[in-house]
Amino acid sequence: MATTDSDQHALAARGRSGEIRIGDGDRAAADRLLGEHVTAGRLTSTEYAERAGQAGAARVRGDITALFGDLPAPHPRFDDGPAAEPAAPAPDLAPRPVQPLQRNRQLRHLTTAVIAPCAVFGAAAGLVLAADAPALLLLALLVVGTVYGVLVVVDLQRAVRGQR
């Protein structure tokens, strides 16, 4: 079968396709596909790190396709059309630190859980030991209750401001 001029042109272009420069979207797509191979167990984390570094430094299509030579599909596909949008970053699967507001609430609950039983026990013991001055214990309970009430009101006001 004879080849036409256009067939020879297409073959030559395919041979040079490995020399075509790539963009950030192509590098990100290659990184995402390498991550899929890690998830499937085809690459170790060390191999992934090495290949992802090479993908990030790749300049031409051939650099990217070489990274997938020993792997089954999926492989990167290059579009000769307009530049592709950069791929969305891979989701961060690392555990997230506790937010400061949540940490403050946890600390507040812990403090309440420790102080409340101590206050009740202390008040009961104080009533038994200080039967001569129960007014002093009542004054202490009044002060603690007032401080607690103020803290609750301040917390509610902050919560309302945060919802606006």
TrEMBL record:
It comes from the Bacteria. Keywords: Membrane, Transmembrane, Transmembrane helix. This is DUF1707 domain-containing protein. The lineage of its organism: Bacteria, Bacillati, Actinomycetota, Actinomycetes, Pseudonocardiales. Residues 1-24, 71-97 are annotated as: Disordered. Residues 20-72 form the DUF1707 domain. InterPro entries: DUF1707_SHOCT-like. The keyword Transcription does not apply. Residues 88-97 have a biased composition (Pro residues). The chain crosses the membrane at residues 110-129, 135-154.
